[in-house]
């Protein structure tokens, strides 16, 4: 019988984390802002009003579908804060400042987590699977999560490389297009590529991420 690489869960990261749906939700606010901003004759008030209204409507729809109130409120709060920054500074590109800052912080946090041997992909997926830190005691899983987590670092770096020059140039319309282009498509690609890296990193015969092969000693930091 020919040995094959394991399917490390039965599901993909997209199914476990709901990443594509979250990414689609994340594009709605910026899209509404950009469309209303242009339609309103470059009116910041129109842009932020549309973004908040559309995000609130999506939030109500999510609640009716059974999503948690906390997650919905966090999404709405992010758009409201972005709107207030744009209004306060009177700069439409400032609507995207929160998104730029969170991506910079995320890139740093993911990179540091890998160096500290607590890769955030393992933390998140392990949490979803109810494993807490047991996955770290499997050297193969720890190595695979670390390698796959670098893909997530790269997605944040790619966004920053595009968004920052546009922000400094005051290109609100271009930021809208770039945000949409680098949100759902990039998240979908990141989920797929990190899943591929995860599968390729696990040795043949490994039972998968739902079944860590526990080492007697926990992984060192």
UniProtKB/TrEMBL annotation:
The keyword Magnesium does not apply. Keywords: Membrane, Transmembrane, Transmembrane helix. It holds the Pfam family DUF3159. The keyword Acetylation does not apply. InterPro entries: UCP010219 (IPR016566). The chain crosses the membrane at residues 46-64, 71-88, 108-129, 150-168, 174-197. This is DUF3159 domain-containing protein.
